């Protein structure tokens, strides 16, 4: 091998060695950044708590997440919610999605109020004075006289959620609203008035 070829090969070897050192340094930097981010996340997370995204029980779609959320909620109701004398849960509370929704947001509001980093005493006061009593009152109203047998097939509580009344006419309202928000809404037709009357009679029978 000629001298020029030896020099060229040596130069390539040195370049490869430099690049290898740079890659190693970058790899070490990435690991350090990952560690720093983990420390920051841990510092922002309440002790014993996992960060929880804002989720609605009504819109739950992931079965595993729903199971986890309910397990967390049940543990919290025993530890916190049911310690208050005005807080009651009937045996069928899990069959009431509206009750689960109420308790779920109250549970998360409690976690935020007592967060070691972001929690404040005004938040704690608001939870005690307004949020918890309000939820307890609505939960009692929803399930105070209910029992599990009333959720069997054919009973009122076993029916699916009712559709929004006159939903088939929503397109007409949407078009009218976007065309001129200050104009009167379209005059109800005889068909719509008939549907509204049926809906009102059904509501009266249920109550």
Largest pleated sheet: none
Shape: extended
Q: Residue ranges: pLDDT <50 for 5 or more in a row?
A: 37-48
Alpha-carbon Rg, integer: 30 Å
Element order, helices and strands? HHHHHH
Query: What share of the residues does DSSP label as strand, in percent?
Result: under 5%
**Count of distinct strands:** 0
Proportion of helical residues: 55-70%
**SS class:** mainly alpha
Protein name: DUF4913 domain-containing protein
Organism: Pseudonocardia oceani
Region (Disordered): 184-207
Biased composition (Basic and acidic residues): 187-200
How is this structure best summarized?
The protein has 207 residues and is mainly alpha-helical.
Structure description:
The structure is a single chain. The chain has helices spanning 3-44, 63-79, 97-113, 121-143, 170-179, 190-206. 61% of the residues lie in helices and 0% in strands. Mean pLDDT is 82; it is low at 37-48. The longest helix has 42 residues, at 3-44. It has 6 helices and no strands. By secondary structure, the chain is mostly helical. Helix 2 crosses helix 3 and helix 3 (97-113) packs antiparallel against helix 4. Residues 184-207 are annotated as: Disordered.
């Amino acid at each position: 091998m000629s001298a020029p070829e030896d020099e060229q090969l040596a130069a390539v070897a040195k370049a490869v060695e430099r690049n290898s050192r740079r890659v190693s340094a970058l790899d070490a930097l990435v690991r350090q950044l990952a560690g720093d981010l983990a420390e920051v996340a841990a510092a922002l997370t309440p002790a014993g708590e996992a960060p929880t995204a804002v989720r609605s029980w009504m819109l739950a779609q992931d079965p595993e997440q729903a199971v986890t959320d309910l397990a967390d909620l049940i543990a919290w109701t025993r530890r916190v919610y049911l310690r208050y004398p005005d807080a009651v849960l009937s045996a069928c509370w899990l069959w009431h999605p509206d009750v689960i929704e109420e308790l779920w947001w109250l549970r998360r509001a409690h976690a935020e109020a007592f967060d070691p980093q972001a929690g404040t005493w005004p938040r704690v006061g608001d939870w005690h004075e307004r949020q918890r009593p309000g939820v307890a009152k609505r939960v009692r109203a929803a399930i105070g006289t209910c029992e599990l047998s009333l959720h069997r097939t054919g009973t009122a509580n076993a029916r699916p959620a009712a559709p929004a009344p006159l939903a088939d006419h929503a397109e007409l309202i949407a078009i009218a609203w976007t065309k001129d928000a200050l104009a009167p809404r379209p005059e109800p037709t005889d068909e719509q008035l008939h549907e509204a009357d049926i809906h009102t009679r059904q509501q009266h029978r249920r109550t």
